[in-house]
Amino acid sequence: MPRSVNSVAAKARRKKVLKQAKGYFGRRKNVHTVAKNAVDKGLQYAYRDRRQKKRNFRALWIQRINAGARLHGMSYSELMGKINSKGIELNRKTLADLAMNHPDAFKAVIDSLK
């Protein structure tokens, strides 16, 4: 009895991997065995970096708030301590946006703390 191979499904699997590897350089984009490794690694990085992106943005917001606060003679920790004690409900993302793009509004926030 002849061996039965589901070549339709196998070809579809290989095609799916090569489609995911579109845009890769060299053999990573057109050789299935190489592309499979590259795609697997890329998916691992994507999973990890979805979490790291949140950390990186928080760090960026803190740097921007600190820079804005120091222009007005206050450190980041002082500013956040006073904001929490006064009960001002502004998160770091909003404060960073104010510090970068709306310095007058950020100054008003700082003046309300002094």
> How big a fraction of the residues is strand?
under 5%
The Cα radius of gyration reads 26 Å
Q: Could you tell me the number of beta strands?
A: 0
> Could you state the order of secondary-structure elements as H and E?
HHHHH
Note the total helix count. 5
Question: Average pLDDT value?
Answer: 96
User: CATH topology, what is it called?
Assistant: c-terminal domain of poly(a) binding protein
CATH architecture: Orthogonal Bundle
Poorly predicted runs: none
Whole-number tally of structural domains: 1
Shape: rod-shaped
Instruction: Report the structural category.
Output: mainly alpha
Termini gap: 88 Å
Short description:
This protein is mainly α and 114 residues long. The chain is built from five helices and no strands. Helices cover 75% and strands 0% of the residues.
Describe the structure.
With 114 residues, the protein is an all-alpha fold. The chain has one domain: Ribosomal protein L20, C-terminal domain (c-terminal domain of poly(a) binding protein). 75% of the residues lie in helices and 0% in strands. The protein is rod-shaped, with a radius of gyration of 26 Å.
